[in-house]
Specification:
Layout (H helix, E strand, L loop, with lengths): L17 E3 L3 E4 L3 E4 L1 E6 L2 E12 L2 E5 L10 E5 L4 E3 L2 H13 L3 E4 L1 H9 L5
Antiparallel strand pairs: 1-4, 2-3, 4-5, 5-6, 5-9, 6-7, 7-8
């Protein structure tokens, strides 16, 4: 993994601590995305985020091993620039999964989360 390939922040275009993994998935009619993103500290992988959902505007990655909602979700724009890596990303992803609003693709894990949501009356 090259440090020059860091995900950029969409507000200021500065490099973040997030780096795409080499493996790419092609979602027909949607786009190509890294399957994994890794948060780096110095040269060590601190955590790994898996591609979880794609909407017309955003791409979501989740660290399934992290229990803290404030740090477990990355929200990138469709140009793969970081939009949010805090509770706002987590809340947005939950709403997308709960409502299916704008959802173009979700992972099997996200489908399981949907199935566990309480059904409407």
């Amino acid at each position: 993994m090259k440090k020059t390939a860091a995900i950029k922040n969409r507000k200021n275009n500065k490099s973040t601590r997030y780096f795409p993994h080499d493996e790419i998935i092609l979602l027909p009619t949607i786009g190509e995305f890294p399957i994994l993103l890794q948060r780096m500290v110095d040269d060590d992988v601190e955590s790994t985020f898996k591609l979880t959902a794609v909407t017309a505007d955003f791409v979501y990655y989740v660290d399934e091993e992290e229990s803290d909602d404030a740090t477990s979700v990355l929200m990138l724009d469709r140009n793969l620039k970081l939009a949010s890596d805090n509770i706002f990303a987590s809340n947005d992803l939950f709403e997308v999964i709960e409502t299916n609003k704008g959802l173009l693709w979700i992972s099997d894990a996200a489908k399981n989360w949907q199935d566990q949501l309480p059904k409407g009356e």
